[in-house]
Amino acid sequence: MPKKFAGKTIAVLGYSEDGAEYAKRLREQGYEVVIGLRERDVMWPRAEQDGFKVMNLWNAIGASDIIQVW
Description:
Blueprint: E1 9-13, H1 17-28, E2 32-37, H2 44-49, E3 53-56, H3 57-62, E4 66-69
Parallel strand pairs: 1-2, 1-4, 2-3
């Protein structure tokens, strides 16, 4: 992701295996990442265990500058 996005919050909507890896890579590169999930999604606890701030989909969209759907 270009450095022109520095200081922006990125929402990753979905936390499948691919989405999780993508979110982790973004975080490793220094980007602020939030995870957007349905409130009853079984992946919610895993995303929290992985150290992400997890929100329902609408809140994640509202809190972010950039949105990536997985």
